[in-house]
Amino acid sequence: MAKIKHNNFLDTVDGVFSDATEAGVLHLYAQGSSFGGRKIKVNDRDLLHFGTTGYLGLEQDSRLKTAAARAIFKFGTQFPLSKTYISHPLYRELEEKVQVMYGYPVVITKNSTLGHMGVIPTAVRDEDGVILDHQVHWSVQNAAQQLKVRGVPIEMIRHNNLDMLEDKIRDLSSKCRKIWYMADGVYSMYGDCSPISGLMELSNKYPQLHLYFDDVHGMSWIGKNGTGYVLHKLKELPENALLFGTLSKTFGASGAVLVCPDVKMYRKIRNFGGPLTFSAQLEPASVAAASASADIHLSPEIYKLQDELRYKVRYLNRLLEKTELPLIEQNDCPVFYIGTGMPVTGYKLVRRLMAEGLFINLGIYPGVPVKNTGLRITISRHNEEEDMDHLAEALAYHYPKALEETHTTLNRVRRAFRMPVTNTEQKRKEPGILDLQLENTIHKINKEEWNTRFKGHGIFDWEGLAFLEKAFCGNAAPEHNWSFYYLMIRDKSRKPVLATFFTLALWKDDMLAPASVSVKLEEKRKQDPYYLTSHVLSMGSLFTEGQHCYLNSSHPQWREAVRILLETLETLNEKKDTSMLVLRDFTEEEDLSRVFHNRGYIKMAMPDSCAVENLSWQSVEQYVASLSSRSRKHFRKEVKPYEKFFNVKFRETVTAKKTEVYRQLFENVRKNNYDLNTFSFPEKLFAVMSQSPFWEFMELSLKKEYHKRKDGITLGVMFCYKNGKDTYVPAFIGMDYTYAREYQLYRQMLYQTVKRAGSLGFRRIDFGLSASFEKRKIGAKATPKVAYIQARDNFSMELMGAMREK
């Protein structure tokens, strides 16, 4: 399997968001001539509003509104100057009030995102290191990436994993002056919190540890003067901590605030903090509204507001306790997350609730893993008890309806979130239209039935799979042993609707990551060979390429067949505890793409698949004439002149000594290819190839007259599989890089492969993925391919992103 492209994150998110928009749950517009907070008008309907982040409802407070309106008429809509030069007349008053709230020096920023971009590169020095919680807000992660160009190490830990954090601290302690751990106080999706007491214990144990908290979702609704969750737990902010709060969301205005107890660092950040220096300052209306809110925060009224909200949060918790709804986190935070698992279940449930007069946001990728989609319900002081009664009743009624409508179950959702399963769930009755055959060896699959669908496809006709099973079992190393799973789904007349196979194998987590990431990880694997490796259940295998899935899309039950496939994979995934499911080598098909996404998979672009489909020529001259004019020029300049340097031999069996030569050449290519960072193949693979009548080895050696040695030097080998009489498959290549550039070795091997396939009378060459530019030059056609991936969580992907070079 060649490398999945790296530049498709935005394309992936665009696809997810587009599906959610089409489902009517994203990119909506509020309507109406006014807004009170309790209800929101969408699609000409008034809906009870359970999607705000203004938890205390201060954005509707008349004191804030009046202050903002007066400021506009006094000072204008904006004060268009950098705050470094001069702040408008209301700024000093706001800064003084907020500083009294916290009791420490503060910096007011335009918003938290710009604040992080200004503060993090200033606070973190070149000799420091950074550790990110993998669920810390995107704005913090994005700002931290700026540090890479300065050589600051960026590490990442699993969410709230203090043992992993301590290991990272120890790793960095000898390399870094300060070690910054960056986390949220309250996490915006699930509503869970940082383990503050545990972090302070680590801080006391390791003086190098400094803490950077984004507490914008913990602001106002808790803490002395509404200063948030982190300070509520700490009571006092130590000098080794920086804290971000917000003047928007629950505070009711706009902007953000950095709290910095270190006076020296405070001066540096205030004097020059990137966007803090060059960006426009908050508008007069925003500053005035924030100042009015600060007055409320500095008065006893803030505790009355907090108590009102706390009562409503606990009221909803009591209502949800009476249901079987999978509430991911239960605490006093006004954020509730009810898992739906698959996106399609979330879409259906949100639409059902909107029909009941309820507006709720959906948590989707990349905010959460795709299979951890769910309802993100937020409570504010605007919500009344009767609103929450209606919400709980509607959820209890419509949640199981949405599960049934999307062919899933409560326990499937609970397993997706690693929650205990219930004992009351009844097994859903299957319609019995289709029949599944699941086997663990190709020898239990009818050869004729399989080959009817896969003969001529890569190395996964019946014979090819029998070869793979023999090669990848009974080996010493765990990465050299694969489990095979074959699925045949037939209709009532016993005709296959879907057929495919999967392998369960140990992958390097960075196989899909940029080469720069793999280089770093391979250094760590010199001490720990299995560092960041996981078991993956993948359609096809790391040895094969092509259309691994036969699907009769004209069959009326094809969607049901796909559903059975995905549910079977889910069961296997749970039993084998794999980290990722991969469906690969598909062409772009809108209907199928939507089905996979709705079931919790994200689409990733892969390298083009290359094939030569015109082998009808009878001579080299006819072959060259079949190429494009540009390719003909390439052939005459870069290919044909180098043919004279080589002896070309084709071997069906080879000695043990020659097998080792070939294996070493292959290892040269594998180890040199960080773009596809895989484990080695078992040594016996090449011996099994030699014993198989379906394989041959194309060897290129340098003629004796072009070097000083008496015997020819073997420079390259192509491992070629003969799939029936139709398809020739140059599966893998081995090369001696010492001579590769001088003699245009790779291009010559591609050309000799084409010559060989033509001379044997094959109709097609499956050249596989990657290097499409070179393969097109010798007549190959490139076809775009995509994969669909479902990860157990986003940690590995985000870790690779954190390690990626800027």
From TrEMBL:
UniProt-listed SUPFAM superfamilies: Acyl-CoA N-acyltransferases (Nat), PLP-dependent transferases
PANTHER family to which the protein is assigned, alphabetical: CLASS II AMINOTRANSFERASE/8-AMINO-7-OXONONANOATE SYNTHASE, LD36009P
Keywords: Aminotransferase, Transferase
Domain Aminotransferase class I/classII large: residue ranges: 47-395
Domain BioF2-like acetyltransferase: 630-775
GO molecular function, a single term: transaminase activity
Species: Sinomicrobium weinanense
InterPro entries (alphabetical): Acyl_CoA_acyltransferase, Aminotransferase_I/II_large, AON_synthase_class-II, BioF2-like_GNAT_dom, PyrdxlP-dep_Trfase, PyrdxlP-dep_Trfase_major, PyrdxlP-dep_Trfase_small
Pfam families: Acetyltransf_6, Aminotran_1_2
Name the record gives this protein: Aminotransferase class I/II-fold pyridoxal phosphate-dependent enzyme
Cofactor: pyridoxal 5'-phosphate
